[in-house]
Amino acid sequence: MHRATALVTAVSLALGAAVPAHAEDEALRKELDALRQQVAELQAEVQEMRTAKATPVATAQPAAAPLIAPAPAATPAPATTVAQASPPPAQRGVGTDSTRLWGYGELNYNHPTGDAGTSQADLRRAVIGFSHAFNEDTHVYGELEWEHAVTSADDQGESEVEQLYVEHQLSPEMAFRAGLTLIPLGFLNEHHEPTHYYGVERNFVETAIIPSTWREGGLSLLGTTEGGFSWNVGLTTSQNLRNWDPADPEGRLSPLGAIHQELQLASARDVAIYGAANWQGVPGLTLGGGVFNGNIGQGDDGNFLGADSRATLGEVHARWQSGPFDLSALYARGTISDTEKLNLTFIGNPYPVPKSFWGSYVQGAWRVWDSGESSLAPFVRYEAFNTASSFEPVPLGLGVPDADTERVWTVGVNYYLTPEVVFKADYQHFNITDELLGYGTRLDLGVGYQF
Amino acid sequence: MARTRAIWLVPGALAALPAYHAAYAVQYMSVAEAQKAAFADASEFAPVAVDRAALDGAMTAVPESALGAGWAPQVFAAKKDGATEGWLIVDQVIGKAEAITYALALDARGAVTRLDVLEYRETHGGEIRLPAWRRQFVGKTAADPLRLDADIHNISGATLSCRHVTDGVRRLLSLYAHALKTA
Description:
The complex is a heterodimer.
Chain A: H1 2-21, H2 25-54, H3 65-68, H4 70-74, E1 99-112, E2 120-135, E3 138-147, E4 158-171, E5 174-182, H5 205-209, E6 215-224, E7 229-237, H6 250-253, H7 255-258, E8 271-279, E9 285-295, E10 310-322, E11 325-336, H8 340-344, E12 356-366, E13 369-371, E14 374-390, E15 406-418, E16 421-430, E17 442-450
Antiparallel strand pairs in A: 1-2, 1-17, 2-3, 3-4, 4-5, 5-6, 6-7, 7-8, 8-9, 9-10, 10-11, 11-12, 12-14, 13-14, 14-15, 15-16, 16-17
Chain B: H1 2-6, H2 9-20, H3 31-38, E1 44-48, H4 52-61, E2 74-80, E3 83-94, E4 99-107, E5 112-120, H5 131-134, H6 159-180
Antiparallel strand pairs in B: 1-2, 2-3, 3-4, 4-5
Helix pairs in contact in B: 4-6
């Protein structure tokens, strides 16, 4: 403010001194031009300070009279079609509130074509999110989720905090986060709202191999560069291999999902690190990848045979969105090391700890119609994945065979009533009976929204 | 195990970062800087008060991402030797949950010459600041569709910010057509 005040004083003095002193028109005009420019700069500066001070909303500030009075007087009258002295427009809420609510939700119906008796309708999730700005640089961001409509001791629903972190902007290009954050691998994990993906259900690769919605507690540092790189690195909690149940098929459905901790009284003796980057330097194109690596034994108390185990998950992805076309591909591969001794104790059980697992998909969507805010986009996706593609060798052939690779074709359509409200229908064909679903081919219907 | 123990030094280092960073705001550019960047040789930026009817007209024409009754972009006429070189309009849209302040520069014929993000307050979607993304708007006029995924490419992961800024620019070009064009 001091600089501005000094400038105002200087300009006023200059005006007072300059105007009567010069008689010659030419000199006076030049002087006035220079002053005009100074005043205009000053005006912008003052206006900006007011805007920043009073409210983050940038509005025309007609009340700036004392400081900018010389300008309109010296300025040719603006265009006739615009009213010079219109009253200040009503301030609206944009940016004036420091606390905001947002949310999303989805309701799905699954109909197995070979076994209609197991058809199911589900309120998959209802989510309320909030953010609060403590100041321009410091925010808290939270996401609260209810799954399957009803949560109680007798019901199967879940209620969970999916994200909760404080973010502090360190510089215009870099921020720091502390709390429960989403691991930035793949397309879906960070952007899992139903309007962001094709098909009623999230794809298999990004649920079985990358266990969406995957979050860990910890610290992260993230940023962007002018050249189109965005990066995110962190130090977080990791999985807990002690929670592996060799009798429970959950480990076969999603090896990392089965031993996630989700910051629920998480064992934090061992930690993990991750790093991810995307390049979006050409509009429409995304190329990226990331790695997560952490010890998952959670301490060596001398009894647990998987104390040295380490989980690693890496992925690469690409997406090209151009005009009505949206093409994407992703490959992810994970390993769990040092499982040999632990698996010896699991002999006789159907689901020992796998050594490796992988998945990939390609997807193409085409917006064939749009009108106003509505659009219709058919899509097709081919996925192949294996949640137990290898095991550490077990003596005497006592181990279990590697899992079969599951291949799924999904053909369907997303109908966007508005960009934030989507109706979906698809048909999925499986090469084998899906372990989780217990059936193959199915029809799905869904509705989702985001605000 | 020593390796695992040493890793706890990292949070200490990370936690120490905020202690020495300068007090930055998320303001990437000031209005004055945006004016200079867009019209380097203009001698004056005269504030233009746009009447309510023109704002309502532009709002009705582009209802998407509605901002409500108080929508109040800040309009400056960039002048050199008294002649209008173009316009700089400072406006806001909502990204995902919080406001994005941006400046749109138009030449005297109403074609976009520059788009700058002045302030960004979100924890997501900041990729819209990418120069390559913003350059897509250069040359657009009120006659262009200005639709995300049509003539403006999306940034995966920042869809809401991209869509709302695109809608915002379309609305400002409509405002130009309603209120500034005959000037």
